[in-house]
From TrEMBL:
It comes from Chitinophaga costaii. Residues 1-21 form the signal peptide. This is Pimeloyl-ACP methyl ester carboxylesterase. GO terms for molecular function: monoacylglycerol lipase activity. PANTHER family: HYDROLASE, PUTATIVE (AFU_ORTHOLOGUE AFUA_2G14860)-RELATED (PTHR43798:SF33), MONOACYLGLYCEROL LIPASE (PTHR43798). The keyword Lipid biosynthesis does not apply.
Length: 332
């Protein structure tokens, strides 16, 4: 009977997906109508002639253990998707800092800014300095993992331990995919909607296994596409996509000094530029198990943990497995 019920569930999701798309509530460029899991504060930055507000959550534990963890979000999310992770770590006594990088989430979306991983790392370091935090554990997912690597290279004295969850940038996409300029990326961003965003997450994050719990993340990302502010958001998305494609960290992994945990979902195949290459080339990109193994061999003090039959977002898809691995590393 189980295959029959699976079939019924698949049919139900097929028919309700358009309804969910119609029920998505529009959100402006800084998600002012959306409530984050913890109180949001703002850090003021002056960048390239822009006065900008960087949103962040500062989760104070009831029984502090004296350590701080910084959670760095991925490209298609803000800090809100760390809800379960931040809750768990806070209960374990960690102070948890969850920034929204400039251009993402509740932070400002500037019209003119030269984005770089170095700039985002610098912004994060300034935020930590303002909070009196001079050492922290850094945990980054996807783009946040790429940023965490850059942060660790720039500020080795600040990083006690480094955790990389399916970090992008473990290969140089420029070697296989043609460059797409910001105008082309922007035009593509303007075409986004709920159905396309859900399909991308289904294919890349959840490898074809959609659960109702994932709907809120597809709905949140697509909510901004329904707002008059969306061109502003799309422009920042294009600028940061260009940043990730053109600024690989892969050539500097040996510079990472902190003890490092690399967590990889074995079904992850994420790679920028896959849509611009032939099927034959595409099949050689984003091979995360092999990329993770190669990266762990190059980072001086690294260990690799594979999570089998899991895609690009283990902390959402299999939280209990993810946090068990993280916790074991933290208490070593």
């Amino acid at each position: 009977m189980r295959p029959f019920f699976s079939f019924l569930l698949a049919c139900l999701l097929f028919y309700i997906s358009p309804l969910l798309a119609q029920q998505v509530t529009p959100n402006d460029a800084t998600l002012s109508q959306y409530t984050y899991p913890f109180p949001v504060q703002y850090f003021n930055l002056s960048l390239q002639g822009n006065s900008l507000h960087m949103a962040y959550m500062d989760v104070t534990p009831a029984q502090p253990n004296g350590q701080t963890i910084v959670l760095l979000h991925g490209k298609n999310f803000g800090g809100s998707y760390w809800d379960s992770t931040a809750t768990y770590l806070s209960r374990e006594g960690y102070r948890v800092i969850v920034p929204d990088q400039i251009g993402f989430g509740k932070s400002d979306k500037p019209a003119h800014l030269q984005f770089s991983l170095q700039l985002l790392a610098q912004n994060t370091h300034r935020l930590l300095d303002s909070l009196g935090i001079h050492q922290a554990i850094i945990l980054g997912h996807s783009m946040g993992g790429m940023l965490a690597m850059r942060f660790s290279i720039m500020y080795p004295e600040t990083v006690r331990k480094l955790i990389l969850e399916d970090p992008i940038g473990l290969e140089d996409w420029k070697l296989k995919a043609p460059y797409a300029d910001v105008d082309k990326l922007y035009a593509g961003e303007l075409q986004q909607n709920y159905e396309k965003i859900k399909k991308y997450q289904l294919d890349n994050y959840f490898h074809g296994q959609w659960k109702p719990a994932y709907d809120k993340w597809a709905a949140l990302q697509s909510s901004q596409t329904l707002s008059p502010d969306y061109p502003q958001v799309a422009w920042n998305n294009a600028l940061t996509s260009d940043m990730l494609f053109t600024q690989p960290v892969i050539y500097e992994l040996e510079k990472i000094q902190a003890p490092t945990l690399l967590i990889v979902g074995t079904l992850d195949r994420t790679a920028l530029g896959k849509d611009r290459v032939s099927p034959e080339v595409r099949a050689t990109m984003g091979l995360y198990p092999a990329l993770g193994k190669a990266a762990a061999q190059r980072i001086p003090h690294a260990q690799l943990e594979l999570i089998h039959q899991v895609g690009h977002a283990p902390h959402i898809e299999v939280f209990s497995q993810f946090i068990k691995i993280v916790n074991a590393f933290l208490i070593k």
